[in-house]
Amino acid sequence: MLAQQVARKYATALFSLAKEKAILEQVSEEFKDLKQLLDGHPQLMHFLTAPQILEDDKQKAVRQIFSERVSSGFLQFLLLMVSKHRVQHLGVTADYFEGLVREEKGILKAKVITAVPLSEELRLGLKERLERLSGKLIVLHPEVDQRIIGGITVILKDQIIDMSIRFQLDKLRDELLAVKVH
Questions:
Q1: How many domains are contained in the chain?
Q2: Would you say the pTM of this structure is higher than 0.70?
Q3: CATH code (residue 141)
């Protein structure tokens, strides 16, 4: 929970600043590049989060690695994360920032869970229907999970539409268990 709160706080502050300076796209790209770099070099994250390494050494490393790769504003943001010992939350912060950018653009991310992969035709139909219902542009993130048995589960922001067979069976089981037999 702390990671979510920290991410929200820092992402919202950076988002406001980037929006004010009209550099949302640039900061968004810098976050993507940062995540890619950290994913490709886990030892860098280990270095930046290691308590035995002095903050000055971490700050020097961040300047050395990122000064040519990112804008000065984003570099200052990274240095702030280092000085506040929040580097371990960079990934979640980046995700939260991307969510704010999507929201600003009127784009919703829809996680779609099915038991088998959706055909392109079904995917397009679902996308169009969700766009009509929400009034926003939808980006689908399909996921296959055989545990739902069949049907579909759609997660839109904080709304869950569960039409899976697993959900129906669980609901039926609960109803049957609630019945008193004499």
A1: 2
A2: yes
A3: 3.40.30
